[in-house]
Amino acid sequence: MEDGDLPIFFEHQRDPESLAMAAFKSRERTAFFDHWAKIRRNKIGLLKTIVYEGEVAGNIASFMMDGHREVGYWIGRTFWGKGIASKALGLFIAEETERPLYAGVAEHNAASVRVLQKCGFEVVEKLPDFADVEGKKVGGWILRLA
């Protein structure tokens, strides 16, 4: 991950369709860059830029959350449907060997659930209040790679 990747990640997380799919709230520019500076200083996780045909397609990271290791990824919408997330996650979990590894996904994001399951993750919990987006509760799934 390089400094020059961050402005692209910023634009990816501003896309309304991507935000709706992820049940995520976009960060304003200063908050976004502050957040990534904190993540990059924390040496506990693994951070990678996803590159497809020479372009920054997204990012993938592992991090500690509530006492366990999680993985999260974000693919720019123009790169959806090309198998990039599955390939990136497969390569990532070969390098990130801590297990179990968890992932949380909004219940309506069937594509991300499929990506995780193709890479060996299994659904272990359904959460009725996975996210709160503009006052609306969104359900979700917790998946685990043993």
In short:
By secondary structure, the protein is α+β, with helices and mostly antiparallel strands. 33% of the residues lie in helices and 36% in strands.
Would you give an account of this structure?
The model has no long low-confidence stretch (mean pLDDT 95). Strands 1-2-3 form a three-stranded antiparallel β-sheet, sandwiched between helices. It has five helices and six strands. The chain starts with 5 loop residues before the first helix and ends with a strand. The longest helix is centred in the N-terminal third of the chain and has 13 residues, at 29-41. The chain is 33% helix and 36% strand. A hairpin with a 2-residue loop joins strand 2 and strand 3 (68-75). The chain has one domain: Aminopeptidase (3-Layer(aba) Sandwich), CATH 3.40.630. It is α+β, with helices and mostly antiparallel strands and 146 residues long. It has helices spanning 6-12, 16-22, 29-41, 84-95, 110-118, and strands at 47-52, 55-65, 68-75, 101-106, 122-133, 136-145. The radius of gyration is 15 Å and the shape is globular.
Oligomeric assembly: single chain
Distance between the ends: 27 Å
- Relevant CATH superfamily: Gcn5-related N-acetyltransferase (GNAT)
What is the structural class? alpha+beta
> Which band does the percent of strand residues land in?
35-45%
Strand order of the largest sheet: 1-2-3
CATH class: Alpha Beta
Main sheet specs: 3 strands, antiparallel
Instruction: Summarize the helix and strand pattern as letters.
Output: HHHEEEHEHEE
Number of helix segments? 5
